[in-house]
Amino acid sequence: MAVPKKKTSKSRRDMRRSHHHLASINTSECPNCGLQKLPHHICQGCGHYNGRQVLKIKKEASAD
After folding, report:
1. What is the total count of domains within the chain?
2. 3-30 pLDDT, tens per residue?
3. Whether 10 contacts 18, CB under 8 Å
4. Per-residue pLDDT at 57
5. Is 47 part of any domain?
């Protein structure tokens, strides 16, 4: 069985793990309402996709 001859330094260990980070989520602005949405997804704020209404969104009653 192979056994390391020297201790791996923190720098070398961290450089090896440099690609283990989380990728950022790409969002785009809805052209209809301006909210941030995922590309190629229906806007959750207004229900528009590709310039047309595809989902009816219920208006939430304000809790006064």
Report:
1. 1
2. 999 999 999 999 999 999 999 999 999 9
3. no
4. 85
5. yes
What is the per-residue DSSP string for 8-63? PPHHHHHHHTTT-SPPPPP-EE-TTT--EE-TTS--TTT-EETTEE-SPPPPPPP-
7 found inside a domain: no
Range of the domain at 41: 26-58
| Residue 1 falls inside a structural domain | no
Question: Considering only CA atoms, which of 41, 15, 19 is closest in space to residue 30?
Answer: 41
Assess if residue 14 is contained within a domain.
Answer: no
Q: In angstroms, how far is CA 35 from the centroid of its own chain?
A: 14
pLDDT score at 63: 62
